[in-house]
UniProtKB/TrEMBL annotation:
SET domain ranges (all copies): 23-260
Recorded GO CC terms: nucleus
N-terminal signal peptide: none
InterPro entries recorded: SET_dom (IPR001214), SET_dom_sf (IPR046341), SETD3_SETD6_MTase (IPR050600)
One annotated GO molecular function: protein-lysine N-methyltransferase activity
Annotated organism of origin: Thermothielavioides terrestris (strain ATCC 38088 / NRRL 8126) (Thielavia terrestris)
Name assigned to this protein: SET domain-containing protein
Domain of life the protein comes from: Eukaryota
Length: 479
C-alpha cells in the first residue's frame, strides 16, 4: 500500500528532535546513488584518529538491533505479545518485524490503533521506496541473472522470505489487534516484507561493540573503494562518524565509508544493489549437490551438516584458488574406506557416525582433503574431485554463455539492473574461464601420476576383461 514518504528537507528537524548531531555535514542527493552525506565546508583531518571531532554522532538509544527491539517490547505490551508469538528467532527477523509494525502504523491515517510511535516510525519514511537489490527486481530483470551465481541464490532468498512472511501472517492473525492493524484492509503486504529485508541488508552496519545494527543517519553514507570516513562507537556507546586520518575534503564533496572489500561482485549486488569493481573480491560461490545416483548421498549431506559449495577466488598475485570440502566426501565411497554407522546412545537416541579407514571422523567431515592424503589412492581421489569441480564449472559457464542477454535493456528492464547484471556476468565468466583452465592443468598432471596410470590401466584391463566375458556370454546366449 502506498504510504507518504517524508522529504529529505525534513530530516534536520528529525535530527534535532532526536539529538543526533551533524557537524559541518548534511544529507544531500548524489547523482546515481540516492542520498549521501556531503561537507558543508572544507574539512581536513589530523593524522591521529583521536584528534578528529565526530562529523555525525548518533545517541546509542537510536541504534536498532535485536536488543533494542526487546527494549521496545518491554514498553509496549501489544508488541511484546506479537514478538513472543512471531519473533525471537533471529536478530534480523526481530528488527524486520519491528519495522513492519512501523510501516503499518504510518500506512493508516489517524492515530495508530496499536503500536507505540518511536523515532524509527518517522525515520523509516525518509528511506527509499525501493533498493536495486535483485530480490526487488522484476521477473524480466531477474532473467538477466540466468547462469550467474545469483540465479539460484535470489530464487532461494525469495522463497525463504515468502515462508517467513506466511508464518508472520498465520501467527499474528490469531491476535485480534495485530490482525486489524496489519492485515484487515491489506495495510502491509509481502512486497513490504521484501522491501524491509532489502533495506535491512543494504543499510545494516557491523558495529565494533554492538554487532549487526541499523543506525539512522549513518546509514545515509554511500560506499567508496577509497573512503574518506569510518564509523565507530565511542565510550558512551554512541555511534560516531569520523574522518580518516590525513583526509582533506572541499565544501560539497561527498563523504564515503567502505562497505568492505572482501565481498564478491555477486554479494555486493545481492546486498547493496550495485557492484564497485575496484573494491570487490574476484571470487565466486556455487552450490554443489551430491551425485543423484549415490546411495550414500543423503548420509553424506547429513554428516556434512552445511550447504555444499564450491568457492573460487583470485588471489592478489592473480592465481586462482578453489576449494570445496564437500566435493571430497562426494567423491569417496565404501570401497575407498568410507563407512556410515548408526550408533545407539544410552538415552535411546540414534547418532550418525562417519568412519574413514576405520577411524571415526564424524567431527572432520569438512576435512577430507587432508584425510585422503595418506590413502594409497590419494591421487585418484583428487583426480575425481578435480574432474567433478571442472565439470561443474564448465556447466555453469555454458549456462552463463548460452543465456547472454541482448545488447541493451528491454523496456521492461531498468538500465541500472541491466548494467549491474552485465558486469556480474563479465566478472563471473572471466573467473570461471580461468578456474577451468587451472583445473585442466591439474587434471593433466594427475593423469600422468604413476599411481593414476597404474590404476587406470588396471581399471581398463578389468573393464575389457568384463567386456570379453560379457561378449562371450552373449555369444553363448545366441548359440
Ligand atoms: C546505506 S545506503 C546509503 C544511502 C542511500 N544512498 C540512500 O539514498 O538512502 C546503501 C545504498 O546506497 C546506494 N549506494 C551506496 N554506495 C553506492 C555506490 N558507490 N554506487 C551506487 N550506489 C550506492 C545503494 O543503493 C545502496 O543499497
Amino acid at each position: 500500500m502506498p504510504r507518504p514518504a517524508l522529504p529529505i528537507q525534513d530530516l534536520p528537524a528529525w535530527v534535532h528532535l532526536n539529538e543526533v548531531s551533524f557537524n559541518q555535514v548534511e544529507v544531500a542527493s548524489i547523482e546515481g546513488k540516492g542520498y549521501g552525506v556531503v561537507c558543508k565546508t572544507d574539512l581536513s583531518a589530523g593524522n591521529a584518529d583521536s584528534n578528529n571531532p565526530a562529523l555525525i554522532s548518533v545517541p546509542h538509544d537510536l541504534v536498532l538491533n535485536s536488543t533494542a527491539v526487546s527494549e521496545y517490547a518491554k514498553e509496549d505490551k501489544n508488541f511484546r505479545q506479537l514478538l513472543d508469538a512471531v519473533g525471537r528467532r533471529s536478530g534480523r527477523a526481530d528488527v524486520l518485524l519491528f519495522l513492519l509494525v512501523q510501516t503499518a502504523m504510518t500506512s493508516r491515517s489517524g492515530p495508530p490503533l496499536v503500536g507505540v510511535s518511536n523515532p524509527w516510525t518517522e525515520y523509516l519514511r525518509f528511506l527509499p521506496e525501493t533498493v536495486l537489490v535483485p530480490t526487488l527486481w522484476t521477473e524480466d530483470e531477474r532473467l538477466l541473472l540466468q547462469g550467474t551465481s545469483l540465479e539460484a541464490a535470489v530464487n532461494a532468498k525469495i522463497s525463504a522470505l515468502d515462508a517467513e512472511f506466511a508464518q508472520i501472517v498465520e501467527k499474528s492473525s490469531d491476535i485480534a489487534c495485530w490482525r486489524e492493524l496489519l492485515w484487515d484492509g491489506g495495510t502491509v503486504s509481502f512486497t513490504d516484507w521484501i522491501r524491509l529485508d532489502a533495506l535491512y541488508r543494504s543499510r545494516c552496519l557491523e558495529l565494533p561493540v554492538h554487532g549487526e545494527s541499523m543506525v539512522p543517519c549513518i546509514d545515509m553514507l554511500n560506499h567508496s573503494a577509497t573512503p574518506s570516513a569510518y564509523y565507530d562507537e565511542n565510550p558512551q556507546d554512541d555511534v560516531v562518524l569520523l574522518l580518516r586520518p590525513g583526509i582533506s575534503l572541499a565544501e560539497g564533496d561527498e563523504i564515503t565509508i567502505s562497505y568492505g572489500d572482501a565481498k564478491s561482485a555477486a554479494e555486493m549486488l545481492f546486498s547493496y544493489g550495485f557492484i564497485d569493481p575496484r573494491s570487490t573480491a574476484d571470487s565466486l560461490v556455487l552450490p554443489l549437490s551430491p551425485f543423484p545416483d549415490d546411495p550414500l548421498a543423503k548420509a553424506k549431506l547429513v554428516a556434512f551438516g552445511q550447504a555444499p559449495k564450491i568457492h573460487v577466488a583470485r588471489e592478489s598475485d592473480g592465481s586462482i584458488r578453489w576449494r570445496s570440502e564437500f566435493a571430497y566426501l562426494m567423491c569417496i565411497n565404501e570401497e575407498d574406506g568410507l563407512e556410515f554407522r548408526i550408533l545407539q546412545q544410552t538415552d535411546g537416541a540414534q547418532q550418525l557416525r562417519v568412519f574413514w579407514q576405520d577411524e571415526d571422523v564424524t567431527d572432520r567431515t569438512a576435512g577430507f582433503e587432508s584425510l585422503i592424503q595418506t590413502h594409497p589412492l590419494a591421487a585418484i581421489l583428487r583426480l575425481r574431485v578435480v574432474t567433478v569441480i571442472q565439470e561443474h564449472l564448465q556447466n555453469q559457464l555454458q549456462r552463463l554463455q548460452s543465456s547472454t542477454p541482448p545488447n541493451r535493456a528491454t523496456p521492461l528492464q531498468r538500465e541500472d539492473c541491466f548494467r549491474a547484471a552485465l558486469l556480474l556476468r563479465q566478472i563471473e565468466t572471466r573467473i570461471l574461464d580461468d578456474a577451468i583452465k587451472i583445473l585442466e592443468q591439474e587434471r593433466s598432471t594427475l593423469m600422468k601420476d604413476e599411481n593414476v596410470v597404474a590404476y587406470l590401466g588396471l581399471t581398463e584391463a578389468t573393464e575389457s576383461d568384463q567386456a570379453v566375458e560379457e561378449a562371450s556370454n552373449e555369444a553363448d546366449d545366441f548359440s
